[in-house]
Design brief:
There is one protein chain. The chain is built from 8 helices and 11 strands. Helix 4 packs across helix 6. The protein is α/β, with parallel strands linked by helices and 242 residues long. It has one domain: 3-Layer(aba) Sandwich (Rossmann fold).
């Protein structure tokens, strides 16, 4: 049987590479027909095109963290779709990373998220009434520490922290209504919606911030500038129940 020798490596006619006494089987197509070569080329092109489509889908996908305010959530999801983006529910990723546990495996979330979406939007709506317990107050506390104020659900705040760890430069925070201040969010990318907000300007800000984050925003049409879904939301007027 013929054998080709390259330095200390040899390739036998049976397709076995021998190097330093170790045999490794290697398959060779020494007499590949033009038809076979064309079929293989077509297969590789198909795989490449599929990979491109999948990457384009990821580039358009954006995770959304949200609470219980359905009206706000629906308005934001529709806005993202009108910008030709693909909103995904962050909670689905978190549930998939729990692996039967009560809490998600943070490492899995951090690893898997960028493979599925290019950025994240976090919706903060006034839902839970909270205040600092009187026993823990200090002199000259801020007013919001002395009386019940509204904040997002705890799970939203926890997931906000995870999202900022995964997408520190590609997270957009949308604040609705009057919210208890969160000091550590001062330097992050956010857009605020209130009763007095110029909604068209706010929607333009959202589209612009998403473009700055590298998302392929399609703002050629006008449907995404429709302010109606964001008008007169109960979140703007919601107050703590005393």
């Amino acid at each position: 049987m013929a054998k080709n020798t390259f330095g200390n490596a040899s390739i036998g006619g049976d397709g076995i590479i021998n190097q330093g006494g170790a045999n490794v089987r290697q398959t060779f197509n020494q007499a590949e027909s033009p038809e076979t070569a064309a079929a293989e080329h077509a297969r590789r092109l198909s795989l490449l095109e599929e990979a491109r489509r999948e990457q384009a889908d990821v580039d358009r996908s954006i995770f959304v963290v949200y609470g219980r305010d359905t009206a706000v959530n629906n308005a934001v999801f529709q806005l993202l779709r009108n910008l030709d983006l693909k909103p995904l529910e962050w909670e689905k990723l978190v549930r998939g990373s729990r692996d039967g546990r009560m809490t998600p495996i943070l490492g899995d979330v951090v690893i898997n998220a960028p493979r599925l979406a290019a950025a994240a939007v976090v919706i903060l709506t006034p839902e839970d009434a909270v205040m600092l317990h009187p026993e823990l107050r200090k002199p000259r506390e801020d007013a919001f520490e002395l009386h019940p104020t509204l904040q997002p659900r705890p799970n939203v705040l926890v997931e906000l922290g995870i999202v900022l760890g995964v997408y520190p430069e590609r997270t957009l925070i949308l604040e609705f209504g009057e919210l208890r201040p969160i000091a550590d969010l001062g330097g992050f990318n956010s857009v605020r919606f209130q009763q007095s907000t110029n909604l068209v300007d706010a929607l333009r800000k959202v589209a612009g911030r998403l473009q700055q984050a590298g998302l392929p925003v399609d703002d050629a049409g006008s449907a995404w500038l429709d302010p109606k879904p964001f008008q007169n939301l109960k979140a703007y007027r919601r107050k703590p129940v005393v």
